[in-house]
Design a protein that fits this description.
- The chain is of the alpha+beta class.
- The chain is 27% helix and 28% strand.
- The longest helix has 12 residues.
Length: 159
């Protein structure tokens, strides 16, 4: 008998290596410039992270939302990512496709009371140009090219 494989209603998907997990932060240009220069964040204030590139694109309106014009990719150690999950406010919201339409499963958003701990961060990079390139390709009906720019985010097995 054929059994359909379906995505769980809630799933953590993330670009990852054996040692790191990538999360995204939409922020102001000033915060982005400081974080990129120091490869760390100033302490204080709640930050909203998501391992979903598409959810970050939706939340920042592809980097057009005031105060969220820049999107940073933050590579965390796996241990740091697990600690972020256990010491945070976790929200689930509909995952999005590239045109921001809600999909039938939920992605995670992680609310930390402060920026990720320095010892968790292995790299911070600016992915705003990629996100804007994808938006530009979608605006000109070039979905086939846009999907090639989206990071591969396989399921992350929670410990």
């Amino acid at each position: 008998m054929f059994e359909e494989k379906r995505v769980p209603d809630r799933q953590v998907r993330a670009a990852q290596t054996e040692t790191t997990v990538r999360v995204y932060l939409a922020c102001s240009p000033a915060v982005a410039d400081a974080a990129l220069g120091k490869q760390t964040f100033e302490r204080g204030g709640t930050v909203q992270l998501t391992p979903s590139f598409r959810l970050a694109a939706h939340g920042s309106e592809n980097g057009r939302k005031p105060g969220h014009e820049r999107i940073l990719a933050i590579d965390l150690t796996r241990d740091g990512f697990e600690q972020a999950l256990t010491h945070s406010h976790v929200e689930w919201e509909a995952e999005r496709d590239l045109d921001h339409t809600a999909l039938n499963f939920q992605a995670i958003r992680i609310g930390l009371d402060s920026a990720p701990a320095d010892e968790w961060i292995t790299a911070i990079t600016d992915v705003t140009p990629v996100m804007r390139d994808i938006a530009g390709l979608l605006a000109t009906d070039q979905l086939h090219l846009a999907v090639k720019l989206v990071p591969h985010e396989p399921p992350y097995e929670l410990g």
